Structures are given as C-alpha cells and as structure tokens.
Amino acid sequence: MATPINAISTKCREKSFQSFDAKVVNNQPSNIPSEYVWSDEDKPSTDIKELQVPILDISSFLSGQDNHVATSQASRLVSEAAKLHGFFLVTNHGVQEGILARAYKCMGTFFDLPASEKQKAKRKWGEISGYADSFAGRFYSELPWKETLTFRFSAEEKFRSGTETVKDLRF
C-alpha cells in the first residue's frame, strides 16, 4: 500500500506542473501561475523572530590536534544546528576565498539564465543532482517559489550528458 507521501509524489509526476520563471511576472501578480499562489492561511508569517545563522568553526577539527575531542565537538555542533535550524555556515574550512568567490559568481550566472536554459540541467526523478524549480514531488497544490541547483563534485567524474548548461559554468 502506498504511503500518503508516495501517493502525492505519484500524482505530482502524473500532473504536468508549469515550470515557473520569475522573470515572467514583471511586477504583475496576475502573471503568477495558480500553483504558486498560496492562501492567506498557508502563507508564512512575517511576525517571526529572525534566527541567527549558526556558525561552525571547524579549524580545530581540521588541525589534527586532539582529533577525538574536535570530532565530537564538530559532530555535536552540526547535529544541533541541523536539528534546530536546518542549515549552518561552516568557517575555517580551508577552501580558498578565490574559489568561493568564483563559485558564487557561477551560481549567480546560472540562476540569471532564462528558465529554458536552466531546464537543460533539470534533476531527473529519483536523482539528487540537478536543477529543480517547482518541487512538485514534495508539494501538491501550493508550490514554493524557489529554485535550487544541487550537484556533486568529483575531479575524476565525467559530466553526464544533458548537463552542458552546468558544465559551461566551470571555474
């Protein structure tokens, strides 16, 4: 017997959700596809307290000194931040600032592309990497107005066919 989530996911795969390009709205709310319009009851509240992004300094973990203590502390901090906030910022990780700056520039370049170009990197059903915009697999009636690009990195792995849009953004 299918679970409710599986049943919803099956319905979402069967229904063709409109891919949404925020640029088509042009400050005209009437242009927003109905799947993206949330009822007043379901809209997020603006009266909630802003959370501070948890910052995880992992320099002691990477230093190799007293590795057991550093590993335990890093593990506890990641677990706590993920459970309480769902995200965190890792600092002192050893990735050079220039690489990070180029990565941010590539992300900006990708998300500035027209929707038709971003769709070339669309995540296939059941896969974890690629572009996603409607999240129809998680929501059925009211879709979140967001888009993501998820990817793995391996210096040895060849790019899959169909990801030329992402491949062109190599830095």
From TrEMBL:
InterPro entries: DIOX_N, IPNS-like_sf, Iron_ascorbate_oxido_reductase. It comes from the Eukaryota. One of its GO terms (molecular function) is metal ion binding. Keywords: Iron, Metal-binding. The keyword Transport does not apply. The keyword Iron applies. It holds the Pfam family DIOX_N. Residues 53-157 form the Non-haem dioxygenase N-terminal domain. This is BnaC04g26080D protein. It comes from Brassica napus (Rape).
